[in-house]
Each structure stands twice: as C-alpha cells, then as structure tokens.
DNA sequence: GCGATAATCGAACGTTCGTTCGAACATAAG
DNA sequence: CTTATGTTCGAACGAACGTTCGATTATCGC
C-alpha cells in the first residue's frame, strides 16, 4: 500500500478513502483484468466458426493481454490465492467461465475433427504454456505476442490434432 | 520462520542456531531440490539414446518430482526471485544447467528427425506445461505422474514433431 | 564430578505492514 | 459568510516478521 501511495501520489490514508482494504483493491484489479480478457475474447470470437481458428484466437487474445500487462499479470499469478473466501469465490466464478470457454472450444475441435484426448489435461497444459510466459519473456529477445501465439498454437494444435483420431 | 518453528518443534531461536537466515535456508532448499532433480534425470538418461525417449524421460522425471513435492514446489515457484543477488546467481547456474539439458535434448531431437522449430519457445512452453501443474493438480481427480507425463509428452512431442520437417 | 562446548529456548528488538483516527483543507449550497 | 459535505493527509496503532541476546540445559572428554 505504501508503494501504491508513492506511485500514485496519493497519501497512504488517502488510498483508504477510496478503497476499503488492500484485499478488496486486489480483488477489483483481478476482476477487472479477467472481465476485460473475457470481453475481448468474446468480441474476437464473433463470426469465427472454424474450431481451430477459434483456439488460435483464444491463445492470441490471452498472450496479447499477458504481454501488454506483464507486470500486472505477474502479480495476479502470484496473488491468485491471496484472497479471503468471500472475494475468492466471486473471482473463481469469472475464472471458471474463462476456463469453461476454453474447454468448450477444445471439445468442439474434438467433435469437429473426431479427435481423442483428455480435454482437462489439454486445457491446463495450454494455460501452463501461456501463463508461464511472465517468468521468461524478454521484449529485447523474444518475438511479439502475435508471433509467439502463432508458435504456441502450432505446438499445441499439432499436439492435440495429430495421431488421436477416434474410430468411427 | 514461526511456521517452520511450530512445524518442526524447534524453537524460533533454535532455527537460527542451524541456519544463518531465512534467505539462506530458502537457498539451501532450492539448491537441494534442483540438484536432486538433475541427478535423478542424469541417472535415468544413462543408456537411453533415442531422442524422443529422452524427452519423455525428462518430462516424467520433472513431473514425478513436482507431484511428489507439490507443496515445496509451490513455494519454490513463488519465491523464485526472492533471493538476494549472492544466492540468486549460485542458483541460477544450476537452473541454467537444467534448462540447457532440456535444450540439448530438443536440439538432438530436431537434428535426428530433421525438424524445424524454435527450441527456446518449445523448451519454455514445455516448462510452462509442467510447472503450472502445481496450480491445478488434484490427487483425488487427476491421474498419477506417469500417466500425466505420458499425456503431456504426447501433446508436446506431436506438437514439435509434426509438420515442421526441414528441406534436405 | 568437572569444565568446556554444543544445543535449546523465552523474551525481546527493530522494522514493515495494513489500517485507522482526527485534524486540516476544499467545495458548494443557502 | 456560514454551514454541511467531500477530500486529503500526517501520525499513529497493533500485529506480524526476521533476527538477536542472554540465560539455561544437555552432552561428553577427562
């Protein structure tokens, strides 16, 4: 809170005039972040019907936001469980919706292409690939979000789309 | 430190008889952990020459240790940057060796199969898939390390081994 | 049994953190 | 101008944290 006070130019006590507590502040930031990501995703998904293309859009949308707000995402990843039950459950609903969206896209891909893999493991592996980026991405070395999203999409989509055809 | 005191039955002051500081303690834990993983990996890699099999072993070794010490790995992932420069550089050397090992395996796979992909992105994506597991793995729901390693290996290896053949 | 060294601990110190309080100041309506 | 309401802040509180100190107790060679 003292860091935020210094950075914002508002006195420490002043912050508490606008925010009930540090925890509620963190909650509002997280809620805003996830809501924004979900909104952008839904907007980009409109009019796209090819399941593979939808997954590529999901990955691009996720990485773009993560890289544009890298410092913030680092905090969010670290403080994911720092909220009391009241706040946590509210947030869990939004996260769950986002997770379910990804599950939906992959299930549709599976059905459309007659594939066979564990959706849960695939989704969580994908989130791992994407979320881990905050630990290593270096703007001076690594490519931009579009390029990285393309490479990760290639790895992931080939991974789930190759070999595991279901018998008809 | 008070938690460790309670959990270990040693008084708070007693801990400082054995460890210089909390930071040094964290450093020793991290060093021991990574050294153990590297040792086990090298032992398992002996006598295996097929690059694909080597990568599968790498993944299995990593996941087995992560799941067997899930709580510890959660701490390590969170405190990765909590060390002062003196300790951090010592640890970075070990981590770098582990990272380089994985790069070596993938480069060999690439050469052996004539593939074409960014080793850096592939390795870091793989680490993301594997390390993220501490955020979601539930022993009551999810399969064991061997099974998970197999599924992740399938996704990852198909991902990097499909499509990107180099022109000869 | 005795002295020396090792091991253990309760109590405290100084700092940092989230939070609150009361006063000071600004703003605008009557 | 007065009064009520909104805004801002310095100063402090109580708790938690990493760490240290001095004293007490165990261990062991002689």
Structural notes for this entry:
The structure is a homodimer of 168-residue chains. By secondary structure, chain A is mostly helical. The first copy, chain A, has one domain (21-161): Tetracycline Repressor, domain 2. Chain A is built from 8 helices and no strands. In chain A, helix 4 packs antiparallel against helix 8 (145-161) and helix 6 crosses helix 7. Chains A and B meet through helix 7 and helix 8 of A and helix 7 and helix 8 of B. The structure holds a DNA duplex (30 and 30 nucleotides).
Q: Can you describe this structure in just a few lines?
A:
Two copies of one chain form a homodimer. Chain A has eight helices and no strands. Chain A has 168 residues and is mainly α.
Q: Supply the helix-strand structural class of chain A.
A: mainly alpha
Helix fraction bin of chain A:
over 70%
How many separate domains of chain A? 1
Average pLDDT of chain A, rounded to a whole number, is: 91
Q: What name does the CATH topology of chain A carry?
A: Tetracycline Repressor, domain 2
CATH classification, class level of chain A = Mainly Alpha
Key features of this structure:
homodimer, 168 residues, Tetracycline Repressor, domain 2, elongated, DNA-binding
SSE topology:
The structure is a homodimer of 168-residue chains.
Chain A: H1 2-8, H2 12-18, H3 22-45, H4 51-68, H5 70-78, H6 85-113, H7 119-131, H8 145-161
Helix pairs in contact in A: 3-4, 3-6, 4-6, 4-8, 6-7
Chain B binds a DNA duplex (30 and 30 nucleotides) through helix 2.
């Amino acid at each position: 809170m003292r860091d935020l006070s210094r950075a914002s130019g508002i006195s420490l006590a002043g912050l508490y005039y606008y925010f009930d507590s540090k925890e509620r502040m963190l909650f509002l930031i997280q809620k805003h972040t996830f809501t924004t990501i979900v909104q952008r995703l839904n907007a980009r998904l409109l009019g796209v019907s090819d399941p593979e293309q939808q997954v590529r859009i999901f990955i691009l949308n996720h990485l773009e936001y993560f890289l544009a707000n890298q410092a913030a995402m680092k905090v969010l990843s670290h403080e994911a469980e720092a909220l009391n039950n009241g706040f946590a459950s509210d947030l869990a609903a939004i996260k769950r919706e986002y997770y379910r969206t990804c599950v939906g896209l992959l299930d549709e891909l599976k059905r459309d292409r007659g594939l066979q893999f564990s959706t849960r493991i695939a989704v969580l592996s994908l989130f791992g690939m994407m979320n881990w980026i905050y630990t290593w991405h270096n703007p001076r070395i690594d490519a931009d979000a579009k390029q990285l999203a393309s490479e990760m999409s290639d790895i992931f989509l080939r991974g789930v789309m190759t070999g595991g055809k279901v018998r008809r």
